[in-house]
Amino acid sequence: MPGTIDLPAITRNLAELRAAIEEAAQQSGRVHEVTLVAVSKNHPAEAVAAALAAGQIHFGENRVQEATAKFGPSGSALLAGLPRPRLHLIGPLQTNKARDAVRIADAIESLDRPRLVDALAEAIQREGRSPDLLVQVNTGSEPQKAGVAPQDADRFIEQVAARFGASLRGLMCVPPADQPPGPHFAVLAALAARHGLAVLSMGMSGDFREAVRHGATWVRLGSAVFGARA
Length: 230
Ligand SMILES: *Cc1c(COP(=O)(O)O)cnc(C)c1O
Hints:
This protein is an alpha/beta fold. The chain has nine helices and eight strands. Strands 7-6-5-4-3-2-1-8 form an eight-stranded parallel sheet. Helix 4 (98-104) packs across helix 5 (114-127). The longest helix has 21 residues, at 7-27. It starts with 6 loop residues before the first helix and ends with a helix. Bound molecules: pyridoxal-5'-phosphate. Pyridoxal-5'-phosphate binds next to strand 8 and helix 9.
């Protein structure tokens, strides 16, 4: 039931997902480490604490404000005494949230436009810290979806690389819900290879096995870890 914390279920889900990821990684025919990012958006800090207690380190949130409430310095005392979580921001990011994002995030996965690049560069300089950065590619060219258009991706990735150097770690995508995801994962993998980028953030609860078989190194799993969102 949404909103209810079921510690045994979260622990069991994480163990099963880690095993499924491992199996898919072996099927991919190449040796690669896969990081499970547990997407805790719309779930309370108690759910994060439960996952942390089960050994989960990486978490994903869509909104800076919600992330700050759970993971920020003034965030929940519930996380005190547990290992330090690593926060990934995976949702569309407004430029006026860039500074808060840089302050709190270990990774920002949704770079998709020059104005956001400018805002993040300034925030990184002011805050004196740089999260890992990923360029989001709108592989399906969906008008409602964030991400740089595929035909603009090469140039944009070059600009981001020139600006941020090694902080640019890789690429992220969310394939269209009504299409087989495989071709989208393949496009993202080819793009990352062309630019020498190691991180491929692709695959969600419904399609992570296929994403890992296509070389995903980060998978973003929400409902498969925490159950349905409220
Ligand atoms: C919500 C969300 C996820 C997790 O989705 P599930 O289907 O619950 O695993 C992954 N990536 C992004 C960008 C999201 O917004």
